[in-house]
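Researcher: We are triaging several targets before committing to wet-lab work. For this one, the compound of interest is nicotinamide-adenine-dinucleotide. I'm pasting the protein sequence and the ligand SMILES. What I need is the predicted three-dimensional arrangement of the protein with the ligand bound, expressed as structure tokens, so it can go straight into our comparison scripts without reformatting.
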Amino acid sequence: MTDYSGKTVIVTGGAKGIGEAVTRAFAQAGADVFCADVDTEAGAKMAAESEAAAGSITFVDADVSKASVCQALVHQAAAANGGVDILINNVGIQPLDSYLPAHEFPEETWDRIIAVNLKSGFLMTKYAVPEMMKRGGGVIVNTASVQGRQSMKGVPAYAASKGGMLSLTQQLALDYAEHNIRVLAVNPGTIETHLAVESVDGDLEALRSAAAAAHPIGRIGKPEEIATVMLFLCSDAASFMTGEYVNVDGGLMAKGAWAE
Ligand SMILES: NC(=O)c1ccc[n+]([C@@H]2O[C@H](COP(=O)([O-])OP(=O)(O)OC[C@H]3O[C@@H](n4cnc5c(N)ncnc54)[C@H](O)[C@@H]3O)[C@@H](O)[C@H]2O)c1
């Protein structure tokens, strides 16, 4: 495993689910991780476990859909070690009451999903990039989704936010390649988290069996299986990768629609 000692990492939506696994994995690998989330209870639990990590976990109560909050978060992280090395734009929401076709979709729900899932990635990048430049480089990894590549019924805002995240990944990679900042995305398949369980009304067994049927690998994914890929993408082992996405989806995107 790569040693991330001395590296400053920011993970948005870092207190639960995939973000929690990513926060823990970086901290176990020696990094100083700033875990940004709106769930203060889960965040406090994460920070309390910091002592067991090789690095550290600092919880920051932060709604990353807001510019001033993103700016303060980056400043806090940068002040600790004199810059930022890695940004994981992981936050995402898909509220249960948002599964609607466009003509029934409330405008405020659209705005909220786009603000949290997509605009936060822009805002965090805007403030973190200058801190990466001070370091001579860095890595940004965006959590997109298989839903950014293919779609399903009733998710206009979520699908657009994830497609936007994939386009943003490519675009940012071009602007920052000359600054030694690599920009990548990960597309998870169905991963066992709060967000995924909520999508099936809290029925974990229904989620597991639907995921097992859908994914060629025959089961749902684990948050740790996303975290290990992110740690690889942020390491020098992936030094020639930028502007690219990786599907971590148990083979879902390899399967044509005709495979059913
Ligand atoms: N779980 C899946 O099956 C799956 C599949 C594809 C993509 N994803 C994506 O992975 C990412 C993580 O999802 P997850 O499944 O771990 O979800 P999750 O709900 O378990 O965790 C998301 C975290 O984000 C936090 N959060 C919500 N709004 C926030 C805000 N405004 N500011 C800061 N934090 C906020 C939540 O409190 C929570 O801790 C999301 O971008 C999601 O779209 C998940």
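Researcher: Any quick observations?
Model: The chain has one domain: 8-247.
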